Structure formats: structure tokens, C-alpha cells
Amino acid sequence: MAQRRALIIRHTPWEGIAGFGPPIAAAGYRLEPVDVGDPAFASLDFDDFDLVIPLGGPMGVYQRERYTWIDGEIARLSRRIAAGAPTLGVCFGAQMVAAAMGVEVYRGPTKEVGFAPVTLTSAGLVSPLRHIEAVPILHWHGDSFDLPEGATLLASTPAYAQQAFVRGDVLALQCHAEMGLDGSFEEWLDGSDNYLAKAGTDAASLRRDYAELGPACAAAGTVLISEWLEGLSHR
Prior knowledge:
The chain has helices at residues 21-26, 70-82, 92-100, 122-125, 185-189, 193-198, 203-230, and strands at 4-10, 29-35, 51-54, 87-90, 105-116, 119-120, 137-145, 152-156, 164-167, 170-173. By secondary structure, it is an alpha/beta fold. Strands 4-10-9-8-6 form a five-stranded mixed β-sheet. The protein starts with a strand and ends in a 5-residue tail after the last helix.
């Protein structure tokens, strides 16, 4: 039997698969990263993969003139999602998934940055997200969206109602349960002083919290993704 393939879409070099990589590989997938700046990305057929994972990035879905690859990625995600194929969106990737499901992505009420737990819905409490209940999870976003048609809300925070949702074999996570042990976090902090100030925090505080709270976040995220993969109907 051929090894299953997982396409990892990187929207920026410093946001990779991080802690989600090992459980996805352990579930039998070959990780195949691609950068949106790669000329081959424009013609890449998402349907050739068993799992597609669009990751985070500092851009907004509404910045389509600046980032000309956005429309093409959304079109391919939309086709994949319509077919019910396994898809996992993380932060900006979750916003791209929401857009591919037909809802608008817009600027949120505030910059939400730092470690904080999410509040699980009743559906979230019986989903793989139960493993992150009460666990401070890393947040780093400033955009939001409405819940797509047919999707089930799994988690919220006071500022952002749509923290996680599921529809069939599609899971979207606005928060970063993949982070906590990955050294690339230093690249996130580099040059982010103005953004962090708008969120009411700073690099020193986040660096301290990452060292203290990150390992538990990453551990919970690993279990979350492992269980979600086990439950996929398209396995």
C-alpha cells in the first residue's frame, strides 16, 4: 500500500508544521511541504494528496491583490472541501478554509496574542479538542470570520467566537496548538514589536510564557491531532 501524502502549505518561511509534524508522520503520512512562493505551487493539484494543511501567516485573506496566490489556493481548497477530503487549517490556514467554505474573512476586534485557554462548546467537549480544555494555547491573530454553513463550532475565546470548527473531515484551528517547543518562535518575535504592542504584550513576556507554558500546549496539541487523524472517515 502506498504511503499517504500530506501537503503542508507554508504561507511564510517561519510558520511550519511544528509539533503537528510528528503525530501526522506517525499516522503514516509523508510530509510534503511547499511554499506559496514556489513557482510550482500555482499548478499543484491538492486532490493528489490524502491530507492538506494550510498553515499560518501574517497576511489577510482579503489582501488578494497583494498576495496573488490567495484566489488560486482558495479555489483548490474549495474543491477539496466540497469533496469532503481531509483538510486541516491552522490560523491563517483556518481563515483560508473558512473562505473556501464561502464566508468572509475580516479584521477582528483586537489583536489576540499570547497564551490563553479556549472555551469548548458542548460539541468541542466530545471532540479531540477536549485534550486542550483548560490548557493555555498560543494565539497570534487579528482576523476573524463567521461560522461556515454546515460547520460545528468547537471552541471560542471572549474576543474571537470562531476559534475552532469542524465539518466532516475538515478541521479549522484559529489558535496555535502546534506550537510550544518549536524554535521558530524566535522568528515570530523578531520584528513584531509594533504588532505585539497593539495586542498589549511584548516579546520578553511571550518568550517567558513560551518557555513556561509551551510544552503543555505542544503536548495537548499532539494528542488532539493524533485523535483527529484516527477519526477521519477518509483514512
